[in-house]
Amino acid sequence: MVAKAREHLRWAELMVEPRLQWPSGLAEPKGRIAEELRLQPGRALSVLNDGGWGGLVKNGLAAGEFSDALVEAAAELVGKRWRPDPPPTWVTCVPSSRPEVAGFAERLAAALGLPFRPIVVKTRETKPQAELENSHQQFANVWGAFAIDGAPAGEPVLLVDDLVDSRWTLTVVGAVVLEAGSGPVSPFVLAKSVSD
To answer: Residue 147 forms beta bridges with which residues?
Structure first.
């Protein structure tokens, strides 16, 4: 039964829904997120520390490197089960102080047979989103904290990160990539910090 439960958790479809509104009460940006700056629906491989892949994700965060098993599982999810529409033709990642994010994204790109282009850079330090109390603080933490170094391919892209909590980091980075001229942005994360 434990093995069946683990298999079920490992192959569950975990959605990462795009945000549709900027936080209320802001001078700029405000209202609905313009469609041309909005992410596509994305996927998460696990919930952090769940009985499926989440334990391996937690171990990878602690060790500073994600296992080959996570790369293989992510490639299986993205390339065979999810198959984003439109399909990505290149991969980038959310820049992180944890180097394993870029390393994982590069290995995932290779497993998918796609080029990896780490064109997103941080323009200032941010706090971990999980340390902040609410959506406004999480948005303010990442707004203006990212820029593009180089020109993105004007084609669909897979945007990779390790964890998702508020979705503001993915939303802001996706908007920066789209504004720079990318095609549609499909987010993929190794784990949700909590299940919804």
So the answer is: 121
Q: DSSP string of 84-143?
A: -SSPPSEEEE---SSTHHHHHHHHHHHHHT--B---EEESS----GGGS-SHHHHHHHHT
CATH of 2-192, one of 3.30.40, 3.40.1350, 3.40.1130, 3.40.50: 3.40.50
pTM of the entire predicted model: 0.92
In sequence order, the 6+-apart residues with CB closer than 8 A to the CB of 161 are: 93, 94, 96, 101, 169, 170, 187, 188, 189, 190
Determine the Cα–Cα distance for residues 129 and 163; give it in Å rounded to an integer.
10
Radius of gyration of the chain (CA): 16
The model's pLDDT over 48-92, given as tens digits with 9 standing for 90+, comes to 888 788 999 999 999 999 999 999 999 999 999 999 999 999 999
Average pLDDT over residues 121-128: 91
Residue 72 sits at φ, ψ, to 5 deg, of -65, -45
DSSP 21: B
